[in-house]
Amino acid sequence: MRLDGFGLLVNDMATMVRFYRDVLGFEIKESEDTSNVYLVKDGTLFLLYGRKDFETMTSKRYEYVKGLNGHFEIALYVDSFSDVDEEFKKAVEKGATPVLEPTTEPWGQRTCYIADPEGNLIEIGSWDKPFCEKDK
Questions:
Q1: How many CA atoms lie within 13 A of 29 on its CB side?
Q2: pLDDT tens digit sequence for 42-75
Q3: 74 has which bridge partners?
Q4: Domains of the chain, with CATH numbers?
Q5: How many CB atoms lie within 10 A of CB 7?
Q6: Residue 40 pLDDT > 90, yes or no?
Q7: What are phi and psi for residue 42, nearest 5 degrees?
Q8: What is the mean pLDDT of residues 8-25?
Q9: 8 A C-beta contact, residue 16 and residue 8
Q10: Fewer CB near the terminus (10 Å): N or C of the chain?
Q11: Are strands 36-41 and 73-77 parallel, antiparallel or unpaired?
């Protein structure tokens, strides 16, 4: 099996579409009133599913984590340490919830955390080199 993509189950599709499109720059072509949003970000399929629609489709009810949560994180990469600081600042100015200010960790990565409107954690990090060189 190969990883094809990942999805978020969301309560408020319009708010989440605006956040990922307007704050983080994800290219989203569907309208805010759709029940499922499909997009590809850097070669990875990323989906937003309406929670109620998903429950209807699977004929099951689920419990969901509420508020700021550490259930999982989405990691975004930028090429330089200064980009981490700049992207954090821009995201917070546009409405992201700050979780961890930019900091350089003992292992050499500069990282920070924000949260989307439904409390999902998003990391913005860098090894101070281009993405194609970060794992070398």
A1: 4
A2: 888 889 999 999 999 999 999 888 889 888 899 9
A3: 122
A4: 5-58 (3.10.180.10), 73-133 (3.10.180.10)
A5: 14
A6: no
A7: 55, 40
A8: 93
A9: yes
A10: N
A11: unpaired
Beta strand 121-126 with 73-77 is parallel
Residue in the block written with tokens 């579409």:
17
Give the chain as a 3 state SS string.
CCCCEEEEEECCHHHHHHHHHHHCCCCCCCCCCCCEEEEEECCEEEEEEEHHHHHHHHCCCCCCCCCCCCCCEEEEECCCHHHHHHHHHHHHHCCCEEEEEEEECCCCCEEEEEECCCCCEEEEEECCCCHHHCCC
Give the closest residue to 119 by CA, choosing from 51, 61, 62, 73: 73
Determine the Cα angle at 96 with ends 90 and 101, to 5°: 70
Token pair for 65: 């984590």
Return the structure tokens found at 74. Answer: 């989405």
User: What token pair was written down for 24?
Assistant: 């983080």
